[in-house]
Amino acid sequence: MTRLLGGVLLVLLVFILGTCGMIVATDIYFRTGGSIPIAGSDDSAMTSTDPVERGAAIYSRRCAGCHSNDGSDKIGPTFKGLYGSEVPLEDGSTVIADEAYLHESIVDPSAQIVRGYPKAMPSFRNLDDRDVDDLIAYIRSLQ
User: Fold this and answer.
1) CA-CA distance, 62 to 59, in Å (whole number)?
2) What is the distance between the alpha carbons of residues 113 and 118, in angstroms, rounded to a whole number?
3) CB 134 within 8 Å of CB 54
4) What is the pTM of this model?
């Protein structure tokens, strides 16, 4: 009985700590306007003439906290292999992840929610068109 109680308390403790971590991460995320600074991010990439490099810098600063670029699971869908793929939506429909879909998902993320993910992404309307295009170029490069 003592072992069972200890196991239950351990699971409860892990749940509470995980929830607190999510609350803190969410608070930081929204206080920074969806920008989670990443250690070692390179500001010089923003002056690059390569849209993929600039998009990678935007990803590092604004997206990496919730979206992976290597296929691993995070709060939001991975960017690896996303471009051109068929995306299942909460309403039961599907959409191809092309420029139009990705642009809308960045500036109006609640327009089409990906099945299995929470409706938690803030709008990035504060990104200008070049930033959005650069981010899409980066996502496209992750095939």
Assistant:
1) 5
2) 8
3) yes
4) 0.68
